[in-house]
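Hi, here's the filled form for the chain we discussed.

Project: internal
Contact: R.S.
Residues: 241
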Amino acid sequence: MIEPLLLTAARIDTFLGAGRLTNASGFFFARGDRLFLVTSCHVLRDDRAGHYPDRIEIKLHVDVNNLASSTGFSMPLYRNGRAVWRQGVDHGGAIDVAVVEIDRAALPLTTLYRAFTPDHLPGNCEQVEVGTSLLVVGFPLGFHDWLHHMPVVRQAIVASSFGLRFQGEGYFLTDARTHRGTSGAPVVMRSVQPNPAHDDLPWTLLGIHSARLDVARDLVVDEALGLNCAWYAEILMTLTQ
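And the returned structure, exactly as it came back:
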């Protein structure tokens, strides 16, 4: 039996033409009949790094009886010269979250995946305290189960007041060991109260991992903070309208 949480995540490879550029993490989010791939904006375009892919590719499981059976699913990032993804902006500035709608009709009929839904977002009565245990599901440095194309999970905790915009930005902090390639990974908490809508995916989607957070420091004497930005997942309700 495969834990459904692992089937929510997808490894993303970015390409410019035939040339592979980088790898990152993403996950599936469904709203009504529509399906989206969620990741970080800087995975799809990063002006600071000069990163301008024109398509992405994700690995899909296509045989419920053989998880080693998979296929690559390519999605263009531009159509008629315009970006196909949606990204968020609020009064605090740009939000490092992007969604790309997936054409469900183009997926192989036997595709095996799980998707978060609006029901997996935290409700008003759900308490998320500092120190709450979290999981980050992704592909750090591209590392994963190469045979079965499964992600790995890192432990984290909430490191700032959940619900407050840290320094006015639309994210909260997590304390976790993360690496390049984790950008776009879902940050989840085990659901506190049973929710029939969660079915066999009893997790609350709190955020989208974006980047490690650091400060000016003496690289010889001082260790890295080990803190990370996780953008609040509620932005998905705006991006998937």
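Let me know if anything looks off before we file it.
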